[in-house]
Design goal:
alpha+beta; Defensin A-like; GMP Synthetase, Chain A, domain 3; Ribosomal Protein S8, Chain: A, domain 1; 3-stranded antiparallel beta sheet; RNA binding; RNA-binding; cell shape
Length: about 210
């Protein structure tokens, strides 16, 4: 979270300097007085400037929640966004009715990926620091990852048995990375991607 320390003859002066440096308004920050200013002898000499710490408020969660709720309302979907901030990562999980969660996941997670992409854009539109948005619906991504790992190992065995490369169905970058990671230590096969988005796919080939 971005912050600055500022000094001034008064707290108001120090705060004004900090707001100018942060290019922020008073409503966008919170501040802590580190040292109160003191007046010198007869108000002329020996005075000490005040010092404050001014921190930009983190509004990424509120922005994400507002945007997601607007999308859910437009789609007439009753799901609840649960949001947690971990450093620069905003973890968002949509929970609710199972049937409605399926609508938000879409085919191979395409609807979920699109909503995650749009939320990233909205959250970072006016943000002074980049926030990475990771979104899930229920436990979809965890279950999908487990399924892809099992599938990749099954296809690796098939490639070895047939002694020829196997081309998988087109996948998004996230899912391709799971396949590559699952087979990177396999002693018999190697993986690479081919094709252009959105039809880029993983190929499982025999190691020479």
């Amino acid at each position: 979270m971005r912050f600055v320390e500022s000094t001034g003859k008064t707290i108001e002066e120090a705060l004004g300097k900090a707001l100018e440096e942060l290019k922020a308004t008073l409503e966008e920050v919170e501040y802590e007085v580190l040292e109160e200013p003191t007046k010198g002898f007869l108000g002329l000499i020996g005075g000490k400037a005040g010092r404050i710490k001014v921190t930009l408020k983190d509004r990424s969660g509120d922005i994400a929640r507002g945007f997601i709720n607007e999308i859910l309302n437009c789609m007439d979907v009753d799901l609840t966004p649960n949001i947690e901030k971990d450093g620069s990562v905003l973890n968002i999980r949509l929970d609710g009715d199972g049937n409605q969660m399926g609508h938000m996941i879409g085919r191979r997670g395409e609807t979920l990926d699109a909503l995650q992409f749009l939320t990233n854009l909205v959250v970072n539109k006016n943000s002074k620091e980049h926030v990475k948005v990771l979104m899930d619906v229920g436990d979809y991504r965890e279950k999908r990852e487990e399924s892809l790992i099992r599938f990749s190992k099954k296809m690796a065995r098939a490639a070895v048995k047939r002694k020829r490369p196997i081309k998988l169905e087109p996948m998004n970058p996230y899912e391709r990375r799971i396949i590559h990671a699952a087979l990177q230590s396999d002693p018999y096969v190697r993986t690479y991607s081919e094709g252009d988005e959105p039809n880029r796919r993983v190929v499982i080939a025999i190691k020479k």
